[in-house]
Amino acid sequence: MDALGARNIDVITVFVEDLQGSKSFYQEVFGLAAIFEDPNSAVFKFGNMCINLLDVSAAPELIEPEQVAVREAGARFQFTISVEDVDAQCEELRARGIALLNGPMDRPWGVRTASFQDPGGHIWELAQQLK
């Protein structure tokens, strides 16, 4: 079998318990409109990649025989968004009532970061390259 080779990641599907709440969060926090919706999903475009919010009830069709982990199982990944000013973005999040998990803080690898969660428990990191 040939290796898959380097390709773009086009879509990441995340499983959510509250599709409407998650959809509203993505619209309000990221200022995005869904590029596709149906009763089980909402897709948002982030630059050259999309995030598909999929209701957990529809997930088994995609991942059986595996199971969807419950939100309380803990974080297994985070999404990182590059921003010009982490502190300003954090103030904007706070103004929208979104609590930070951590940060803003300077990291030893030359990046200032802060993290927050979406309603499904998925972690998002804001990252600013330090000069």
What does this structure look like?
The protein is of the alpha/beta class. It has three helices and eight strands. The protein has helices at residues 19-30, 60-63, 86-95; strands at residues 11-16, 36-38, 41-46, 49-55, 78-82, 100-106, 111-117, 123-129. The protein has a four-stranded mixed beta sheet with strand order 1-4-3-2, covered by helices on one side. The mean pLDDT is 92.
Which descriptors would you attach to this protein?
131 residues; 3 helices; globular; alpha/beta
Helix count, DSSP H or I runs of 4 or more residues:
3
What sequence of helices (H) and strands (E) makes up the elements?
Answer: EHEEEHEHEEE
Report low-confidence residues grouped into runs of 5 or more.
Answer: none
Q: How many beta-strand segments?
A: 8
What's the alpha carbon Rg, rounded to whole Å? 16 Å
Quote the distance from N terminus to C terminus: 45 Å
Roughly what percent helix? 10-25%
Oligomer state equals single chain
Which geometry do the CA atoms define?
A: globular
Task: Give the overall pLDDT as a whole number.
Answer: 92
Main sheet overview: 4 strands, mixed
Strand portion, in percent? Answer: 35-45%
SSE class: alpha/beta
Query: Order of strands across the widest beta sheet?
Result: 1-4-3-2
